[in-house]
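Weekly puzzle thread! Below is a chain. First person to post its structure in token form gets bragging rights.
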Amino acid sequence: MRNASVGWRRGLLTLWFALSGGAGLRAQSGMQTEYERRWFCNVRQVTFKEMGLDRAGEAYFSPDMQRICFQAYPAGKESYQIYVMNLSGTGLKMVSTGQGATTCSFFHPDGQRLLFSSNHLDQRPPIDESQMERVRLRGGASDAGRPPSAGATQPAGAGPAGHPSSQAGGERSRRAAGSGPADYVWLYYPGMDIFEYTLSTGELRRLTDAEGYDAEGDYSPDGKQIVFASFRTGDQEIYIADADGGNPRQITRAPGKDGGPFFSPDGKRLCYRSDRLGNGMLQIYVNNIDGTAERRITSDDNVMHWCPYWHPSGKWLIFTRADFRGRPNFDLYLIRDDGSEMHRITDDPAFDGLPVFSPDGRYLMWTSKRNGIDSPQIFIADFTGLTPDGELCGAPR
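Winning reply:
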């Protein structure tokens, strides 16, 4: 299972984090606030521009927690490619083709394969702007209150599809004239399909070939299925298919863009985000794998809730939240799987998003612009806010 205990490796990984001075893991002062110390400690940056990665994000642990997969801009480029790297910062390798745009990698439970989405075989531009999803900043936020990179219009193909926030590189952001609200436009490439990469051989196998965007994929804990988002019906919906892409079945059917799905640690449920209200203020949902028990677990219609990910206990999810009615800061939050309790995890003024837990729940990994860096990179910290079984540890109540 993806979230099974890794036994003796835990101790070795903890020791390595404490002693490492490797190029790819650098602890620095000022990398977390006093509030954040209630939840995590020992923050260290994992990816750097010096590695030839102009920006990096959306990283996931391998099952044995020895490697990560992620997306990054190669130096001088403005389209993401997929990389694998040892946690020590060694062994950096691009596993996508270097052509077109890519997004959303994830390890197979056997640790020997990973999936990601790419349009290298069909590099049509994103779908017409009139069909793109918009997130309008409300309240006339000032320039100082916008995310740091808001206002810069990136060329087509500059970011991966289906991910908001210009700091994470996940969309093209356009500043409206004057000092009023801005639109955040998400890019959806019609030629985006899901591929599986075998680490030992470099073989790249295409898993989906339906017309329209297929991306945002994840393996089931037993490796027998994948879940992903697709525009094949004209609206973005969630699908589950066999691990080879066969026998796809639609899970969501309500109007509104559904995306970013993940299987729960026991493989019986899904989490995802959706724009059911059509206002860009995404909400978090959980459901069973038959699609018959959907439940919205976030409640504020005027706040964006994005990129949920399960804690290995299955009792909590971590996600990114941004309130655009004032200063639109992106921060990490925990929420119970039934929506009954929520806690803020980060309060750094810079962007924090795309969070994931390690398979044993002891580490948090996310994308951030903290510590004054000028482009998003990947960070890891020891997560102390929950036990592996999902019990709160000294969190403010």
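Puzzle host: Confirmed. Bonus trivia for everyone else. The longest strand covers residues 53-61.
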